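STRUCTURE:
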């Protein structure tokens, strides 16, 4: 009798072949940690543009005299740079992701060096404004590559240390701008007045280009380049509609167009968010992926980072007006008075990796409380000694403020970028940089404008107006302290 059973060969492990679908592209792996010289090189790319933002404030009175510039044109020297910088930061980060972060870093640094030369040689205020706009655009190509290169290299510990250095760099750049600007303007090298504040960037940029080409590794996201034209245009329209009216409005007497442009800002913001959501839903690569912004660490970090840097820029702006304008400190003396603040900021920032590893979000809380105490101490000192304020009596309070800010800034940078995927490092860095830059401009445009309005309209004396601004900044510190406690609650 014949059996109808089908005999199957035994399935032994060596005869089994598993067929699988191709795996989706993996997230790019982190490159080896940056060498000390490579880290120092990319930090030059962060130091130069932020220093340049503050160094110009010291030289504005001299520019007004030598170039016969109106207040509105002087505002454009500052606002043109800041607006171009903020508008293109996210795009610069995206281009680095797609085409290589070292390549964009080199392109941005070369352009920044050339445009700094153009600014230093500008024969008129109009040419200076044009050069500043180009300089801001160059900075936007360079700066995001610093943070995204840090994010794409090394392990968690090395990245934390690098972010500590970045936080220190970003913080003390403002003080360096005051000190270096004061020295260069006061020195009046060969009768060049304000021009060396830009020309000094040229040799630094050349050295940075050489070091970057030799020591900075190339990293990129590994995805096809895609330019989100609609998103770029709408983001640019939104930032311009906010920054230009706020920075130019007071100098021009708040003309009617400034209110109309400002009113359009929510419209551009809403349209930008809708386009980004649609791109991500349809599988396209948006300029700013909503999924990145929705990361809890980024969202909460940015909500604290924005008022922190707004307060910091307002503090520097009001400090210059009070101590150089009212108390008649020289630019150099006013800058040197801030030196202990900068040293304290730098020292504490470099402890960030160890402190955050041990204490977590409580570092931000402690920093905010410390900053609050320093601001109260500064207010009390000025109140007790006004108008005969000696630099030495200010130092204890300034050192305490520097310690507080040194605890806050690097920890916030780490918080914002902690969960951003490597493939989106450029976008994440661009968002952080844009928020930082817009906040710096908004601090001057809001609190700075409030101070000048109260002082010039004689509603309050200089001291009382300064006390009001310090009080607002102290309330911001309290808000950051309270908000930072929520990091550990869920």
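SEQUENCE:
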């Amino acid at each position: 009798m014949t059996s109808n059973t089908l005999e199957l060969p035994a399935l032994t492990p060596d005869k089994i072949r598993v067929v699988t679908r191709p795996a989706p592209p993996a997230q790019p792996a982190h490159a080896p940690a940056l060498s000390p010289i490579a880290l120092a090189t990319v930090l030059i790319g962060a130091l130069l543009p932020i220093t340049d933002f503050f160094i110009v404030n010291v030289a504005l009175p001299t520019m007004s005299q030598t170039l016969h510039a109106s207040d509105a044109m002087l505002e454009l020297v500052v606002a043109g740079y800041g607006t171009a910088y903020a508008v293109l930061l996210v795009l610069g980060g995206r281009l680095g992701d797609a085409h290589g972060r070292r390549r964009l870093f080199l392109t941005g640094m070369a352009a920044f060096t050339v445009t700094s030369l153009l600014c230093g040689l500008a024969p008129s205020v109009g040419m200076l404004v044009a050069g500043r706009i180009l300089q801001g655009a160059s900075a936007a190509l360079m700066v995001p590559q610093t943070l995204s290169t840090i994010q794409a290299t090394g392990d968690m510990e090395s990245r934390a240390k690098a972010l500590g250095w970045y936080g220190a760099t970003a913080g003390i750049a403002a003080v360096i701008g005051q000190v270096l600007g004061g020295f260069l303007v006061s020195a009046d090298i060969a009768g060049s007045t304000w021009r060396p504040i830009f020309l000094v960037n040229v040799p630094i940029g050349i050295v940075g280009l050489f070091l970057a080409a030799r020591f900075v590794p190339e990293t990129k996201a590994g995805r096809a380049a895609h330019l989100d034209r609609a998103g770029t245009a709408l983001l640019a329209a939104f930032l311009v509609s906010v920054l230009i009216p706020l920075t130019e409005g007071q100098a021009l007497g708040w003309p009617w167009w400034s209110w109309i442009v400002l009113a359009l800002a929510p419209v551009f913001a809403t349209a930008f968010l809708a386009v980004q959501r649609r791109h991500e839903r349809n599988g396209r690569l948006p300029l700013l992926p909503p999924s990145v912004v929705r990361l809890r660490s980024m969202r909460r970090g940015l909500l604290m980072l924005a008022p922190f840097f707004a307060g910091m820029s307002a503090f520097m702006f009001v400090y210059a007006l009070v101590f150089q304008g009212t108390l008649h400190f020289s630019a150099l003396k006013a800058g040197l008075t801030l030196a202990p603040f900068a040293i304290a900021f730098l020292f504490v920032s470099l402890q960030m990796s160890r402190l955050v590893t041990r204490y977590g979000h409580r570092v931000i809380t402690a920093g905010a409380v410390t900053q609050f105490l320093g601001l109260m101490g500064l207010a009390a000192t000025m109140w007790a000694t006004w108008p005969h304020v000696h630099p030495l009596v200010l130092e204890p309070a300034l050192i305490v403020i520097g310690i507080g800010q040194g605890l806050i800034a690097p920890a916030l940078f780490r918080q914002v970028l902690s969960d951003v995927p490597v493939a989106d490092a450029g976008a994440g860095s661009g968002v952080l940089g844009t928020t930082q830059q817009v906040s710096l401009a908004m601090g001057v445009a809001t609190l700075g404008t409030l101070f000048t309005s109260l002082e010039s309209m004689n509603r309050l004396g200089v001291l009382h107006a300064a006390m009001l601004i310090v009080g607002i900044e102290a309330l911001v510190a309290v808000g950051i302290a309270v908000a930072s406690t929520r990091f550990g609650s869920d």
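REMARK: The radius of gyration is 25 Å.
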